[in-house]
Amino acid sequence: MADRTADRTAGQEGEHTLDTAFFIRWLTTAAQAVEREADRLTELDSAIGDADHGSNLQRGFRAVTAALAQEPPGSPGAVLALAGKRLISTVGGASGPLYGTLLRRTGKALGDAPEVSPAQLAEALRVGVAAVAQLGGAKAGDKTMLDALEPAVGALGASYATFAEAAGAAGDGALATVPLQARKGRASYLGERSIGHQDPGATSSALLITALADAAGAARASAREDGSR
């Protein structure tokens, strides 16, 4: 039987709700993506960073999936809060606090509701991204994770369809960091030598948003299959 993430009113965009199972699926999908892409993330980081971005995130998301299995949260907000806490405690460097802040602040914005709408998630993610910008003192164009996250949250709206648009925007944002000179983070120490390299943080952020779109696609397909029975 499908979980409760479904089209509550068939054919009406904006009537979808996202439950706790959806958020666990999102982060589990993200963890799988990090496992697949860890070597690539580390390769990107070796050019302009400390060559540990992939391994750090791999360790962090393994801790997230273990925590979600051991301590199943009771709401979408609690899922993100727990994941953020685990990332902060297990991921080294700046990535742990930044990703942890993103998820914890997004979870806090969602509150204790057992289900949320895509529009509510979009607004909560904007809060989380703003918190990341404040913590890191960065903005879009500085060659950081914000170059993927800001276009993504700008594309999010009230339906599942916008999740795919957000993933595309995040991917494009990550690619657009190649010609940029880093102005924040470890890569900024390289000055003009950072030009010509794709930012690893933007790349991993795009993986996170793509995992959200993949989870939404799976939920929508499951809901349609369940409705046709």
UniProtKB/TrEMBL annotation:
Residue span(s) of domain DhaL: 21-214
SUPFAM superfamilies for the chain: DhaL-like (SSF101473)
Gene Ontology CC annotations of this record: cytosol
Superkingdom, natural source: Bacteria
GO biological process: glycerol catabolic process
Keywords: Kinase, Transferase
SMART domains with a match to the protein in the record: Dak2 (SM01120)
GO molecular function annotation: glycerone kinase activity
InterPro entries reported for this sequence: DhaK_L_YcgS (IPR012737), DhaL_dom (IPR004007), DhaL_dom_sf (IPR036117), Dihydroxyacetone_Kinase (IPR050861)
Name of the protein in question: Dihydroxyacetone kinase subunit L
Gene (UniProt): dhaL
